[in-house]
Design goal:
The complex is a heterodimer. Helix content of chain A is 81%, strand content 0%. Chain A is mostly helical. In chain A, α2 packs antiparallel against α3, α2 packs parallel to α4 and α3 packs antiparallel against α4. The longest helix of chain A is centred in the last third of the chain and has 28 residues. Chain A is globular, with a radius of gyration of 15 Å. By secondary structure, chain B is of the alpha+beta class. Chain B has nine helices and eight strands. In chain B, strands 3-2-7-1-8 form a five-stranded antiparallel beta sheet. The longest helix of chain B is centred in the first third of the chain and has 45 residues. Chain B is elongated, with a radius of gyration of 38 Å. The relative contact order of chain B is 0.11. Classes of the chains: A mainly alpha, B alpha+beta.
Chain lengths: 110, 272
């Protein structure tokens, strides 16, 4: 429950404060959002399967974002930024889809 | 393929299963599963930070589009407003030209001068005229091709129209209009990209009509004897279709008079 409350507080704070993002960080935003979606889908599925864990959820959330950002950074340095971004999006997209399918099965039993 | 299989078949983080097993083990051992105050606080802080970061990221990613849309709608508004302005001013120009005409006819000018003025207007193309003549039509070949670069040879170019117009002038044409645009002494037929401009007004393809008023017989004979038909034949081998036809009555619109800003009449200058 703690991480969910924390996330909601963070989202509200973000909506109210509207801080500006440094230009340096801007290329990493899209992929960070997709990584966060992946972690959210994973957490939701775990909760529905009755094995949700605060620590695992938060670490997966944090590390998904950090690694996704790092891969984009690495890609930019190597000159293959867009290709690597595509690879990350594809992998995370597949994960989101299969987790979403599990969630759907858990909720609708179909 | 191990990686893809892993991704496809086990999308849930194995960490969840491991954590669940650990909890089971602890409960079986009879220990308290509560993470304690420091753990809860850390989890809370990390969660708040992550929520904040994701919200800011999403907010930032969504922000630029409204700005771009605004710029676009502002430009569209400007284009519409300016187009309306142009229409309004054109209408006003026509009305004022009519008034000028009326005033000139009202007898303020000596009749000799007025005749000279009318003649000038007629010959320099700033008055609508009618009369018999010749119509030369050039049509783009290879129609249906969307790509303007494809079949450049089959298209009508500004030089083609220039050639036809010059041949018609040489054949004794008294007034010529290209695609409805009357040619005056200072008219130019040019191209900008793939579009043909007459006096900076783009023409609508794929058919370009060159209308010339003059003695129909003389015009036809002289044009046939000029290099015009040979040129049209060359164009025909490249795919440009053309036709030359006589017309009993052509109506050519008035061209725009040139506005003189710096040039003044020599006699007036001397007199002043």
């Amino acid at each position: 429950m703690i991480p969910v409350i924390g996330l909601v507080v963070g989202v509200i704070a973000g909506l109210i404060l509207q801080p500006t993002v440094p230009v340096v960080l801007q290329p990493y935003l899209p992929i960070a959002v997709v990584a966060a979606l992946d972690a959210l889908a994973g957490g939701l599925r775990a909760a529905l399967e009755g094995m949700f864990d605060d620590k695992v959820f938060l670490t997966s959330f944090l590390f998904n974002i950090l690694i996704a950002a790092f891969i984009v950074f690495l890609g930019d340095q190597l000159g293959v930024g867009s290709q690597l971004s595509t690879a990350v999006i594809v992998v995370l997209g597949i994960r989101i889809f299969s987790n979403a399918a599990s969630i759907r099965r858990a909720i609708f039993k179909a | 393929m191990t990686l893809l299989t892993e991704v496809m078949e086990r999308p849930l983080d194995p960490g969840y299963a491991a954590a669940a097993r650990r909890r089971e083990a602890r409960r079986a051992a009879g220990k308290d599963a509560d993470p304690g105050v420091p753990g809860t606080v850390t989890a809370m802080l990390v969660a708040v930070g992550l929520g904040l970061a994701v919200t800011v990221a999403v907010g930032h990613l969504r922000a630029p589009q409204p700005v771009a849309g605004q710029a676009r709608s502002v430009l569209i508004d400007q284009v519409t407003a300016r187009s309306e302005q142009v229409e309004e001013l054109t209408g006003r120009s026509v009305t004022l030209a009519g008034q000028v005409e009326e005033l000139e006819r009202a007898g303020t000018l000596p009749s000799a001068l007025r005749e000279l003025n009318d003649l000038d207007k007629l010959s320099n193309g700033t008055e609508a005229v009618t009369g018999p003549g010749l119509v030369v039509t050039l049509t783009d070949g290879g129609l249906g091709g969307e790509d303007p670069e494809a079949g450049a040879d089959q298209r009508v170019w500004d030089t083609d129209l220039q050639f036809v117009v010059n041949a018609l002038w040489a054949s004794g044409a008294e007034a010529i209009s290209v695609g409805g645009q009357r040619l005056t002494a200072s008219s130019a037929i040019r191209s900008a990209g793939a579009a043909i401009l007459v006096d900076l007004q783009p023409l609508n393809g794929p058919s370009y009509k060159v209308e010339a008023i003059g003695d129909p017989e003389k015009l036809e004979v002289e044009f046939a004897r000029s290099t015009g038909p040979a040129y049209l034949q060359v164009l025909g081998t490249q795919g440009v279709e053309s036709s030359v036809a006589g017309a009993d009555e052509l109506r050519l619109a008035a061209g725009r008079p040139q506005t003189l800003r710096w040039a003044t009449n020599v006699n007036q200058k001397d007199g002043a």
